[in-house]
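To: structure desk
From: M.T.
Subject: fold request, one chain
Message: Could you run this one when you get a chance? Sequence is below, nothing fancy, just the single chain.
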Amino acid sequence: MALVGLVGFKKVGMRKNIVLLGFYVGDEYFEKYSKGDSFPQVAAYKLEGRFLDAMRLGGAFVNTVASIAVSTYPRNKRIFFPGMQKVNNEGSCRIVPLLNLPMLKMLSRLLGTLYGLFRLRKSKTDMVCVYAAHTPNLVAAYVFRKLLGVNYFVYIPDLPIYMDMGVGRLLVTRVLKKIDSWLIDNLISRSAGVFVASEYMVADSSRWSKKPFMVLEGIVHSGSEASHNVPKEEESGIIFYAGGLSKAYGIVELVEGFIKANTGYELWLCGRGELESYLSEVSKCHSSIKYLGFLSAKEVESIQARAACLILTRNPQERYTRYSFPSKLLEYMASGIPVLTTRLDGIPKEYFEFLNVIEDSTSEGICAALTDFCAANRQILFKKAEYGRVWLLRNKSSSAVGRKIISFMEEKNDHF
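Reply: Done. Structure tokens follow.
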């Protein structure tokens, strides 16, 4: 069950009109304009889509105002992203145009979001929800509240100060990011309530420790299905990692630990990040390691379905792990394939009943964990994974958490 702080639920009343400010631009637009981006925001995009589904399944009518989340020029070579609008029975989706140049990107997003919000004022907006702690969207929600009295909530899947792990930044950029984090803290403190990926986001904050909150570590798609190709003992020897390729995510330790373990399995990795060249070189020297580059979501799902193990090796000593929940973990668990992961503060204890744990995130610890995992009974590992999949769909799917999200917003909106 999702952990709820300072909240009581009330009975369903009239259907609420909510505006979601964020980055959910629709699959066709996202795939078209994210192609070729240095760091495509696939995981964040999926999570926001599930959050949107959850609110609608929870009984709300939700309009969206969004701009695409892309790397700033020159990391992404496109300078301008067009706006458009789509309408269906579930609500309207206004995609605001974006000028993808330093500084101007923030300004164009702010102005576009404000315009989109005020275009919806006649539809009697009851509440605004901001997905991700992003300054232009938070400022737009705050201005809308000051002028029209519509309260806003914020869903914070990651703390901004720990985002963009592995992206090199100049000193002046790091200073500006700290100023931005201060402004974000201020705007969040003025919201009616927050959704957070980890309870420590609230508990450790001096600005919003008393803010009404609901822990929503992640959401899995209600229609998620287990792999139909469950590997038999003689079939699959693939240990698979899909995600960011940053030193902060323990990728080097994973590779070194795998080489030391010499289990006879293969390690397949895909994604983008600072370690792409490193993985390309390692794979040339070790035939059991395969770096697959950046893959589409369908390609990732296909490999996951064939894997014997899905692995996450983030270092628990890294402070950011206290304030985040690996969205990839939900995707892994929903597949019904055994998961091997380090024990992170940001992962609630209830999950570990269904996970296989790496207790030591060093290369030696990962070596030991891989050795034990590969020697374990395959049927027991898959039965444990299947129990986890069933539990996940029952407690963490869009349909399971949707009404809780809307009840939280209704309750806190009435008392703010």
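Reply (cont.): The chain has two domains: 4-222+397-415, 238-395. Let me know if you need anything else for the meeting.
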